[in-house]
Amino acid sequence: MFFRTVILKRAHFLLIANRPPYFNGRFLVLWASDMAALTHLETLEIAHLDLRYAHTRIRRLEALLPLMRSVEQWGQLRPVSVVPCDPPCHVLVDGYRRVEALRRCGKDMVLAEVWSCGEREALLALLMREQDRRWEALEEASLIRELHERHELSQESIARLLGKDKSWVCRRLSLLSALPEQVLESVRNGHLSPWAAGRVLVPLARANPEHATALSRVLSQEPLSTRELWEFFHHYQKANRKQRQNMVLNPVLFLKALRAKEEESRTHCLKEGPEGKWLKDMKGVAHMLVRLTSTLPLVIYPGQGNLDRRVLLTAFEDARSAFVSLEKHIQEVSAS
Question: Can you say whether the dihedral through the CA atoms of 246, 252, 253, 255 is positive or negative?
Fold first, then answer.
């Protein structure tokens, strides 16, 4: 009998011959002569699968339909991954989309790779092994929460076993704690994209959970594109409270009004021509000069450091030179 340490995706596995695997608090210990001995293929009834980790996956209809066509044409090409539980049942660890495709195609059997380990070890191995697609951050977060809450692993242990920093584990878990359950359910059902959840709804939920919930409810019925949602959030951040309330209740109407305003502006610019744009820009310069004059005592004052003042006055000289140059060109054009 001998010990062999294998590095697999930065996690430590101790392999020893022909005994069941266990977790010793620091390593995932696999008693086997090689990794192949840890699994075997078996055909199982889909009805006997325990789908307790289905909530950790994001359902995507656009990805399911091609998989259903493949199942109809070629059958199941890749096995799912399961671990044994109360006979005759097995817990489905990986392959939820494949099982869904088989079900929708009227199949009642599934080819499964049965892992000879517990659920905790299987989830750790699942997070570390290469996937056909990258995990979404919310999927990783959901699996990590299962390890932390259901399987009672500390954040430090999870980070060490996955070869990550504890801060990475904390950030993943914070994604879930920041979002209301209704928003998470919308993401899991594919009504909201993970991008929208991470870039828009997470910061929105931290600032105003009610607005995040209201917005997710509307988006599940009337989805926005990534560009539209980012544009909406950009304007939301600059709006007052009353405007924000109206925006989250009807984001589509807000974007329609925004488009109408932009179209009106383009029409006005077309009508006024370059003269109108030049006049608008010049009025903007005048307003800017008024603002600079009012804030002058705040930026140039007695006792100011020479370097700070020199930087400000250099910028002023550059602007004055540009204005003198403009005045000279106006005189030349007017004289011609």
Answer: positive
